[in-house]
Amino acid sequence: MPVKIGEKAPDLKVKWVQGEETNISKLKGNVVYIEVFQVNCPGCFYYGIPQAIEIHEKFKDRGVKVLGIATAFEDYDLNTLENLQLLLREGKLIGETKKSFYSDTYDHKIPFPVAIDSVTKFEGDVAAKIMELIAAQVKDFDKFDDARKKSIQEQARKALTEEPIPHTFASYALKGTPSYILIDQDGKLVDTGIGLAHSMEYTIHGLLNRGTL
Q1: What pLDDT is attached to residue 41?
Q2: Is 154 exposed, middle or buried (0-12, 13-18, 19+ CB in 10 A)?
Q3: Is the pLDDT at 128 greater than 80, yes or no?
Q4: Per residue in 41-69, is it b (16+ CB within 10 Å) or e — as a string?
Q5: Which long-range contacts (CB under 8 A, 24 or more apart) does 73-79 make?
Q6: Domain parsing of the chain, residue ranges
Q7: Residue 86 and residue 110: Cα distance in Å, rounded?
Q8: Taking the complete model, does pTM exceed 0.85, yes or no?
Q9: CB neighbourhood size of 40 (10 A)
């Protein structure tokens, strides 16, 4: 089951590519902000990564740890370890990101630790997992007609049985990229979302000041 708000955040199953190896359980006592992106995702580079860099710069000396997780739920030939390494080492852009920026390189250097997500094939009760996946990602599923429900269930079945599943996506019920994950000092999940993390700095301030008022 994906973790829910207020529950203990599970450790990441990743391979660290930049920075020292770490994990959520090792960072207890800090607020942890995780930016989940794909290298072939222009929106990640326009919105998610710049916001994560800004949060890192503003809060790095105040007990906030920012981590980056490069994942892949599509375009598996482009969202690779090799292309992530090129991004981190040389700022190289690829695919749709390169086309969108009209540039071979990214202007911002990512200053925080970055890892690549692990992927797995689902094993277990597929029928139950299909409904769990739909509940996490499809709003008002019960209101759809039978034909639409069957179509959604078939898409979920294919996603579970035919395509690799990114571990972080499954653990935190993420819906796309860029996505963010916020964890408090006790290691509990505070928030997840897709796109820009609106009011995130305000939320982080609140966590840092918790218990001091």
Answers
A1: 95
A2: exposed
A3: no
A4: bbbbbebbbbbbbebbeebeeeebbbbbb
A5: 73/38, 73/163, 73/166, 73/169, 73/176, 73/177, 74/38, 75/38, 75/40, 76/164, 78/39, 78/40, 79/38, 79/39, 79/40, 79/41
A6: 1-21+28-118+171-194, 122-163
A7: 12
A8: no
A9: 22
Helix (H, G, I), strand (E, B) or coil at 15: strand
Q: What number does CATH give the domain 1-21+28-118+171-194?
A: 3.40.30.10
User: Which string of b and e fits 85-119 if b means at least 16 CB within 10 Å?
Assistant: bbbbeeebbbbbbbeeeeeeebeeebebbbbbbeb
Beta strands at 179-183 and 31-37: parallel, antiparallel or unpaired = antiparallel
Contacts of residue 168, Cβ cutoff 8 Å, sequence gap at least 6: 12, 13, 14, 34, 36, 69, 71, 117, 174, 181
Q: What are the distances in angstroms from CA 109 to CA 50, 80, 89, 188? A: 10, 19, 9, 29
Q: Which residue has the tokens 């080492």?
A: 89
- pLDDT tens per residue across span 59-91: 999 999 999 999 988 888 899 999 999 999 999
